[in-house]
User: Fold this.
Amino acid sequence: MALSSCFDLVEQVDMKTDGSGAIKATLNMSKSRSKVASLMKLKSVNGINIPSEATIKKEMETAVKLLRNTTGISNVQYNLDFNNYIATISCDFQSINALNDFTKTLSKQFNSQITSYNSYEFNNNTQSFKRNYTYMPSIGKEFSKLSAEDRKIFDEAYYTNIVRFNSPVKSSSHQEAKIASNRKAVFLKVKATDLITGKANLSNQITLTK
Amino acid sequence: MQLKYYILLSISLFTGLLSFGQDLITRIPANADLVVSFNNPAIFKHSTFEDVNEMLQHLDVFSSMNADREIDIKDIREIDIDYSRNAYIYKSSSDSVHYIGVILPLRKDHQITQQIMRKWTDLSPSQGYQRRISSDNKMLGAWNDNMLFLFFGDINTFYFKNSAIAERYGIQLSAYEVDAAYPWTETDAYAYEDYATADYIEGIADSVAMVESAVDAAEEFYQDTLRDSVDTYWEGYDFDMEVDSADYDSDFNYDWESTYDSAYSDSTYQAEQDRIAYNKAIQDSLFQQWLLRDFDSYLLPAQNLSKNKQIQLKGKNTILTRVWIKDLDDVYKSFLPLDAFTSSYGFALSNLNYGYQDAIFDFVQDGHTLKLSSSIGLDKEVENMLKSVYSSKYNRKFTNYVPENHLGYMTLNVNTEAFIKQLPNMMNRWYGGMSYGILDVMDILMTSIEITFDEKAISKVMRGDHVLFVNDVQKVTREYTDYEYDENYDYKVVTKTKEEQVPNFLWMFTSEDQRLFKQILNYGVRKGECTFIGDIYKLEAARNTDSVYIYFKDDMVFVGNNLPQIASIRDNNFRSSGDSKLKKELFANTASLVVHTQRIPEVLRSLEVPIIKSWNRTVQNLGKYGDMQAKMQGIRKGRISGELSLDFPQEEKNALGYLLKQIKEQAEESENR
Assistant:
């Protein structure tokens, strides 16, 4: 594919002191909507299947249904905006385990292996929030199989993670992560290509003020 | 097996050695309804043995033929066909059977039997020709020093679905087929008459002697005594030929066992399979008898098509191949499921009559351009109807609005008034005869159209002449959603803009009475669906599209998505192309589509359109091509004609050379993949 493109995946987690909270994930491809619209007219490009609007809707509805039946998950909301190509999904979780279940459900539904390299921990006693992340070389291997032109799609793509807390953040172990002025949020933005190739790591240990 | 001979024939098209002999057009029987003429001298003038050999090698044609050990060649020059003379394929049909004849000129002292008929069985010579029959008894060959004639075909199975004919030949019809044979319950006589053609009567008279042996053969076959039945059949029919019956059983291989090995044990299913196999055995047997019976008369036809100027290619050096069809309507109908439609819906599709008569399709090499041109004869009634529809002229003022840079254009010119006037006649003529029940309804419908529509008034709203240009790409500003974060990383959704390239178009047509359009647009303005600024209507953009602008000027309507272009028409400062050839070409055809192929890669790049990897090379190559054109030239001298053409890159000596090279390279690419 002879095109450069960009998209943003923004993940926002609002943690409460008891370990419950809310998560909202947004995939925004509006900046590339003309190209996405062109791509979606094709069934497959260079061996990569392009899902139709109907398929995406169906898959999302199934995922939402599963999430609504997941213990500890509530208030599941989603929106698919095919005018601007923005997809959002959000829910409340009762515990950090439920948050991991949320990831697990989406991982299973969309045939990815997120849970094998990504999980969250929250220690109520020490008031520490931990994200465990292990780089999966298989992703990089698959990526390297793409042509240089196809890889350009990811040049301007970013992953943004914002974790908010009720208590002030004492410290954050990730060197690239930024702590908000009010110290109640940690912000991390990395290039998608750095994640895919293993240059970036998302592991972070955030300690809150008791 | 027949496929091999098609391939062989294809090979013959691409090679040539000088030799002398008469044109074999006299061997095409007068009753041929389709003839393909291969202008070998012209083909060889434009290509080389090396090119063709290389291409065939890459396409594995030689090795696949050698694998069966029927043809053992590595070079097309190893086949003793005289490619300095034309070759022909024809098809002739009757109610009961259709035959295909392949006429190939041979070199002097040829060894053709060693090359393509080695496994065939000798028959006795006839009329100065040596003869052989294929091992499956379905193809015959005859040759002398000058030519090779291959003769094969097939039964028309629907012929046997008439119960009178089925009974005569011992065919067992199913209940469904018996019904299908008499679809016109109130007009059985009509159905009978339809089949009581000269061909039918003659067919029955000729075949009576064959029926008994055919039925015998089927019954024997049914008893799984195939060898005996074939022997009986050949012994029972005196062809006065030397035939070794032992050669016939090897490929007479209906897969009887596997049919019965199926998991189905249902007795009805079993009975149906029995019936099908029984009928097939009779039909195969009859076909083989008819093929042998008719072979000689087709070898040296008493009357031929040599006087038919439409088939002759002498002196036509640019035409590589010509396909001539005696009656296009008949060919069209032969592809329709006549029996199913007739029995299921009561539509007598056999009465469908578009008024198409003979047709000629030429594959033309003209320098670096390859063309596929067509010319179809029309009957007088249809000619008169269509002539008026295609008679009007384009609005000449369109020439003032030809964009300088465009990727392609499309034109269409039909006379709306004549079209509406002729519509009832056309519908009645084309479809009226298809169903007796629906004919009255059709009449009422057509009369309603005549009364309801004022064709003159409608033609004033839209005369019928249209020109559409796909312009150059233009920069447009697109909005997109982004996020801005404050110092506490709370984010807000913001709308930003970016520039993108999009193609734009300009469509123009003549409208002397524009009131209807304006009323609709004004209604849209009131409803907020469009705006009216500076005499230009703007239709608001729908999802992922651009706004469309409409402007009325004199007796023309302009529609486009490039506001500055529409505004320049309004302001009388539109810069029209000065290309007089283009302007002349624009109005030369009733309908046309022209794409400036060489601009496609650049446009796709600027639009960032995704290109599938396997298309990369093809798309890049398009930059070297010229125009791709499709044209319909309207009615002239009772014929309607059209042409598809493509200007190839000027890298090889001509278009055919380039095409062969491309086929070869594509084959190499596939091998390496």
Notes: Residues 59 and 110 of chain A are 8 Å apart (CA to CA). Chain A touches chain B at residues 1-5, 8, 10, 28, 30-31, 33-35, 37-39, 42, 45-46, 82-84, 86, 147, 160, 162, 164, 178, 180-182, 184-187 (CB under 8 Å). The two ends of chain A are 52 Å apart (CA to CA). Chain A has one domain: 8-208.
